[in-house]
Amino acid sequence: MKNMKLAKHTDMQWFDLHTLPENLTITTKHAVKHYKEEEG
Question: pTM of the full predicted structure?
């Protein structure tokens, strides 16, 4: 992936779903919650 918003984001990182950082967007938090519920 290429960071096209350099003024807003300094970098991108990959994280394990069970060890995500605290500073996620609300949209991402909801998406991860629903994904985990479906994952079982």
Answer: 0.60
| CB 22, CB 15: distance < 8 Å | no
Eight-class DSSP state of 8: T
Do residues 12 and 3 lie in contact, with contact meaning Cβ atoms separated by under 8 Å?
Answer: yes
**If 0-12 CB within 10 Å is exposed, 13-18 middle and 19+ buried, where does residue 16 land?**
exposed
Using an 8 Å Cβ cutoff, are 35 and 17 in contact? Answer: yes
Q: For residue 27, give both structure tokens.
A: 């949209």
Distance CA 40, CA 14 (A): 22
Amino acid, single-letter form, for residue 23? N
Determine the pLDDT at residue 8. Answer: 74
